[in-house]
Specification:
mainly beta
Length: about 400
């Protein structure tokens, strides 16, 4: 229960002047404390309110521009005296979620936060701007709103890739599956591989390329780890490219001998002859004495050449090997010497018993140097003779 003090006797007993002085001093102290509480609560230089006073209570903060990467938390902490900002002590921030933006997630608001912060994800292929309206305030003063414009760069999400390549043939891969931001580039180290593979180098560029050589007769596996880089400097998860590297045949040239009109068959040899290699060839070039046909997708090289002259002819084939998987290799030549076959006409002779007869066969052709072999003749029983060679 409060107790009342009657001051009227003081005023009537001559103490009025002293009392009035006391009241004035007390009022000055209260006014001073009030002014200090209102204007001296800030940590910075304050701002002029236009009537000669410096306002240390109300935040004054300019617009902010921020760049960030998709999925990365960022924050904005205005600093008193930097870029003209007035940031009293204990300033806090509040903001609402921006209007929905296609491809952007994480659009949330907050209140009473010590700094402005957000975590935004961009699932598009290009940077997207997001604008927040932020209200700064202290315990007793609310400042004007300011904007925070956030440029959110996308992060690449590239799916793993598998492909088949031929030994010694340059491959080039341009990723297309996943989120592929505009302006993306790639960096890769030398690959790991099975078997004997050469040519696997590190590199960088807008696509992944290389020339690999398989030194074996069977398929090998080559694996690259690739790191994408997108504008804005955003780091992204890497991905793998797995290459099934098919071999290519390395064949020897060959020389064969055959007779006119006789089927020949040759199984090519070489330093690398993958299982299942097939062969194709065009009609041969000749010296004018022979003729032959082409062939394709055969497990061996074969043909029938006809030589209608009386001398040995030459036919040269160019043969292309193909290994399973469709990898064509450098072709090789097969040179075939084609011997003519004598085509001798039948004849009738007359001789006397016991008298030596001699006959030089004729025909087309009748190659030079042709020799003859014959068996004992068949007879009607009235004659007898011997064979010869």
């Amino acid at each position: 229960m409060s107790k009342r003090i009657n001051i009227s006797p003081l005023l009537t007993r001559g103490y009025a002047g002293i009392f009035r002085a006391f009241i004035m001093v007390l009022a000055g102290i209260v006014l001073s404390l009030s002014v200090q509480a209102q204007y001296s609560g800030g940590s910075g230089g304050g701002s002029s309110n236009g009537d000669g006073y410096i306002d240390y209570c109300t935040p004054v903060i300019g617009a902010k521009l921020v760049t960030t990467c998709s999925g990365v938390t960022f924050s904005v902490s205005p600093t008193d005296g930097v870029d003209g900002d007035v940031v009293p002590g204990s300033t806090y921030y509040s903001w609402s979620a921006p209007t929905a933006i296609s491809g952007i997630s994480g659009l949330t608001g907050a209140s009473g936060a010590a700094t402005f912060f957000a975590t935004l994800s961009n699932t598009t292929s290009a940077p997207v701007d997001v604008v927040y309206i932020v209200t700064p305030a202290t315990l007793s003063c609310t400042g004007a709103t300011f904007t925070v414009t956030v440029t959110v760069y996308p992060a690449a999400t590239v799916n793993n890739i598998s492909l088949t390549a031929c030994s010694g043939v340059t491959f080039a891969v341009t990723p297309s599956s996943g989120n592929i931001p505009t302006g993306i580039s790639y960096t890769w180290n030398a690959p790991t591989f099975t078997g004997t593979v050469t040519g696997g180098n590190s590199g960088s560029g807008t696509n992944i390329t290389g020339t690999l050589t398989n030194g074996t007769a069977s398929s090998q596996t080559v694996t690259y780890f690739v790191t994408p880089s997108v504008p804005g400097g955003c780091s992204t998860a890497g991905f793998t490219i797995t290459i099934t590297l098919l071999p290519r045949a390395t064949m020897n040239v060959a020389s064969l001998t055959t007779c006119s009109g006789i089927l020949f068959n040759y199984t090519p040899t070489g330093t690398i002859v993958p299982s299942g290699t097939t062969y194709s060839w065009n009609a041969p070039s000749t010296d004018g004495t022979s003729a032959g046909l082409g062939g394709s997708n055969a497990s061996s090289f074969s043909g029938t050449l006809t030589n209608t002259t009386t001398t040995v002819g030459t036919a040269t084939y160019f043969v292309t090997p193909t290994v399973p998987g469709g990898c064509s290799s450098a072709g090789f030549t097969v040179t075939v010497s084609v011997f003519p076959v004598a085509n001798i006409s039948s004849t009738s002779l007359t001789t006397c018993t016991g008298v030596l007869f001699q006959y030089t066969p004729t025909g087309t052709p009748a190659p030079i140097g042709t020799t003859y072999t014959w068996n004992a003749p068949s007879t009607d029983g009235t004659s007898a003779g011997l064979g010869g060679s």
